[in-house]
Write a structure and sequence with these properties.
Rossmann fold, alpha/beta, two-stranded antiparallel ribbon, single chain
């Protein structure tokens, strides 16, 4: 499939730049993250009928009961992932979804390992990443709550759906000093950062958020 990467009108570079300015005003401080968001055509990650809304700071449906995350949340989670370790070698993404978060993360990481349980979403994401020339992403069609132990340990793990409780399988796949960025909770969700220090984990609870649930295969 051929994508209009430049966009026009409501998908133009000017519209992207307005989004970036809004994110800056909302507290995103990492200018490299903001630059990547400015350069990434979010409109190719949503259905064509929703393209005119792609640069609103809101989540949008992508089918299969899933959503593309709000740009602020994507920027916030990426910023948290890169804090204190801007040169990551291996990062696990749980929940490829549309592939937008993956595309924002890929320029900062030597290799991204992205896991998705819905085959059509994974295939669409792969096509979009190929169109953008992103060739440092490996994909797996599986239950992301189990992670990708064959390639562990990871310098960081980012989760784009919310389990009720943080899966121990994911924390066990963190490298020393590695951090896990994850939303969790059922009725009330919170974004948390967990960092491995030897055999212990430190957990910092941050923003209140709203993600689709992380579904574990039985």
């Amino acid at each position: 499939m051929k994508y209009d990467l430049a966009g026009i009108g409501m998908t133009s570079q000017r519209t992207r730049d307005r989004l970036v300015q809004r994110l800056r005003e909302e507290g995103i401080q990492n200018e490299q993250v903001l630059q990547v968001i400015s350069q990434t055509p979010r409109h190719i990650f949503v259905d064509e009928a929703l393209a005119s809304r792609a640069y609103e700071d809101t989540a949008l449906p992508i089918g299969h009961g899933q959503t593309i995350s709000q740009p602020y949340i994507v920027a916030r989670m990426t910023e948290l992932l890169l804090a204190d370790n801007p040169q990551l070698q291996k990062v696990l993404e749980v929940g490829t979804g549309s592939g937008y978060q993956t595309a924002i993360l890929a320029p900062f990481v030597e290799q991204v390992f992205s896991v998705e349980r819905i085959a059509p979403l994974l295939e669409q994401a792969r096509e979009r990443h190929s169109a953008l020339g992103l060739n440092n992403i490996r994909y797996s069609l599986s239950d992301g709550s189990w992670g990708w132990p064959q390639h562990a340990p990871f310098d960081a793990i980012i989760v784009t759906a919310a389990p009720d409780e943080i899966p121990a399988e994911l924390t066990q796949q963190l490298a020393e000093g590695g951090r896990l960025i994850i939303p969790h909770g059922s009725d009330v969700q919170r974004l948390s950062v967990l960092q491995r220090n030897g055999d212990s984990l430190t957990q910092t609870d941050l923003d209140m958020v709203m993600f689709v649930p992380l579904i574990r295969e039985t």
